[in-house]
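hey can u check if this looks right to u? its 639 residues, i copy pasted from the old doc so theres a chance i mangled smth
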Amino acid sequence: MSKPILFTHCTDQEFHFLEAPNFTKLESSTYNGQKYKFSKDGKFVAIYDPLNLVIVNTQNKKRHSTLKMYHTPYVIEFSPKNNYLITFELYSSKHKKENMGNLAIWDTKSGKELIRIQSYQKEIWPQAIFSQDETLIAILNQSSVVFYNLKCLNIGPVKKKNQKGIRNFDFVQAGNELLLYIFSKGGKTVGSTAEIFVYPEFSTPVFSQTLMNSDKMSIYWSFNKRCALLSSSSDIDMTGNRYYGSTNLYWLNRQNNGKFKFQNVGITETIHSFKWNPVKNEFCVIYGSMPAKKILYDDLCEPYFEFGGGSRNDQSWSSDGKFLAFTGFGNLNGGVEIWSMEHYKQIKFLDESFGSQYGWSEDSKFFYIAVVREKLKVDNGYKIFTTFGKLVKHEQFDVLVDARFCPAIKGTFEPVEINEEVIKTANRTYRQEKKKKELNQNNEQNSNLFIPSFKKGRTTQQSSSIGKKERHPMFIKKKKKVKVEQEKKEKGRGRGRGRGRGRGRGRGKGRGRGRGRGRGRGRGRGKGKENKNEKEIQKENQTNNQKNRQNLNNMSFEEMPNKEFLSYFGNYKQDEIIKMQKENDKKDPQKVIRNLKKKIKEINALKKKKSNKQKLNNAQKTKIKQEPIYKYEIHRLKK
């Protein structure tokens, strides 16, 4: 039997448990509290009231232990096996008077305080990290990382790594090894460095990289610690392209020799969000101006799937990696897209305009959206949906401090199995809802239209023309003109020979029978001369040009006649292109083809700007005209 899914929320006074599938409140298990933190496996939750920190067992909803707090904790963190707990308090004058440290380590069973250490940097977290087996703890202390043995903390530090300007660190277990990541900020002349060491040998790093103009650099590991993403950010953009600084993303991959391969992901635009798949070595990045691009990268840092564009700035993976939700909250009114990562199809769109917190349940069957007091002081509440968008629970509060699902160990719940038929039906319903929404929006726009006095008081049939563009009198006149031109096309002046009575020139096509021979008005076989429009002439010219281009593709520049050359490539001089061709023949053809393809990509970007009605320079306009020359040159070099 798998344990039920739990959802928790905390107001300014009480903490509540809710149980799936109906998410009813368990009133017997309410606690007074304003802040709480779950353990990584979800077995315990630490709830803070103004005096104590209460540790509750989530299975039986009973108290496990109580920790007496002297100050309000800023951060609460459990150890991997839940035997220890860290509390970090903001350093104040009270700590100075009492000579107390603001970073404390507690025993969760007895509730005793084991050690207190002074730590001044509230901006940097984590400042203390446990090893996976809970034998060691690494603590950041100004310009050094200190290691303690948890079984004998009173002895003092076991190991120490001194380094100036440490701004961030991480301590993880990769297989049988313990890896220490350190980022130290540089100065005006010295660049910032990111290094990875294998504990306890700190003499030579496994990875070292220096980057200029980097104020922050955080590391994000994949599920098996084989790969990692480095996020480098600077407060000031030296290129001047961005107002709020710049962000860069780098990819690390550990080789068989133990060292790391360093590679730039290659994103020059602003990065909104990036997250690893919790089950695979693949990650998704949201970047660019709105509508932002959403691209999935494989384990070799190569893009292999692009999601549809939309106003999204964050993402949330389900714990089994089967679903991915894209959100557009904050300064956007984008809503939530839910994608099936097994079928790479969108299954639902949630039209929710507000949300400061969101996430999946551990069985991947529910998704919640909450508005919390910390972000917004209005419309506090939460909503719980199924993966296919059905609203299960909705509740509003005057003050909501926090709301989230209880975590759990992977494998405790049965995996969600979804057939292709279920995905197809979900896709159909999503499209139908989208069409209905568009129709409702159009109807609302039409209902808000101004109705003139001569239209008021008419019947529905008479007033049905209001708000419809097809019934507009100016549009009707244009349609009449088009009809007259079409009739002229159909009626072509020509001579139709046929057997009929009488003589004379006739209009039309067809067959006529009668006594006597002669020219007359009759319908006979044969085409007459038609009055061609400008559009028809343009179409004929286009088809002729396409045929000419197919023939010209097989020619070289020197064999090409001057008239045909000018019709194909515009007003460019033939001698200049032949010079370029001779220079390219001297170089390596593969390198030339790569450079030409890059230029074609730039031209395609300019074409998009032009289609979006953005203004282009004269230089950019001439660049677009050079596209056929580059394409022809690639075609020639490949031959």
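Confidence is low (pLDDT under 50) at residues 458-485, 487-520, 522-530, 561-567.
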